[in-house]
Amino acid sequence: MGLFSEATLLTATGDDDTLRSIRDRLPIATRFIGYGHRVSFAFVAQEALARAIASPSCASCHSIIDPPGWSLEHFDATGAYGDTDNGKPVDSSGLMRVYGNTVGTQDSEYTFKSIDDLAPQLATSCVVAACFTRSMMNRAFNVVDTSGTLPYTDAEVNHVANRFANGGFSIRELVKAIVETPSFLK
């Protein structure tokens, strides 16, 4: 299952008062896919989610941030695996749409039964690779993507993302590609 099912990742932002599925999906959506905000609930996962997205203004974001969390429904706040949530069977299946908001990427859909299905799809996704590349470039250049003027170009992001993907999604290859960009070498 890898990184997405590590207990340290699953418990890093959780507490007993936070809805498990929302707690789990936000760090993934924010750190790996580029979306997210913090929300807290004290209800059972599936029931609270239905209440939370009843409003169309809530549903627009939840359609993006919820699916990664659904894949983690089998894990509790301590990272322990379970088949029930308050006596009800856990459903960790879903459909995740990732929007190609990075130049050169296209929208993608991932159908999954659990994190075992979703993680390998995300690990080799061009959209996720491009978003992760941009996030890592922001860190390397010590900038915030919303700051307006960025010290690198979209062409450099695409080049680095391609090297990352062509290098088997190796973090070492990603870092090498970033530090070899003309903008980084200035």
What does this structure look like?
This protein is mainly alpha-helical. It has 2 domains: 2-123, no CATH class; 127-185, no CATH class. It has 9 helices and 4 strands; from the N terminus they run H-H-H-H-E-E-E-E-H-H-H-H-H. It has helices spanning 7-11, 20-33, 45-52, 56-70, 115-123, 126-141, 154-166, 171-179, 182-185; strands at residues 84-85, 88-89, 94-98, 108-112. It has a two-stranded antiparallel sheet with strand order 1-2. The longest helix is centred in the C-terminal third of the chain and has 16 residues, at 126-141. The radius of gyration is 17 Å and the shape is elongated.
Q: State the assembly state of the protein chains.
A: single chain
Largest sheet report:
2 strands, antiparallel
Q: Strand order of the main beta sheet, please?
A: 1-2
How much helix, percentage-wise, in residues?
Answer: 40-55%
Bin the strand percentage.
Answer: 5-15%
Low-confidence stretches are: 1-5, 12-23, 30-43
Rg calculated over all Cα atoms? 17 Å
Give the gist of this structure.
This protein is mostly helical and 186 residues long.
Task: Sum up the structure in keywords.
186 residues; mainly alpha; 2 domains; two-stranded antiparallel sheet; 50% helix; 8% strand; disordered N terminus
Please specify the SSE layout and strand pairing.
Layout: H1 7-11, H2 20-33, H3 45-52, H4 56-70, E1 84-85, E2 88-89, E3 94-98, E4 108-112, H5 115-123, H6 126-141, H7 154-166, H8 171-179, H9 182-185
Antiparallel strand pairs: 1-2, 3-4
Helix pairs in contact: 2-4, 6-7, 6-8, 7-8
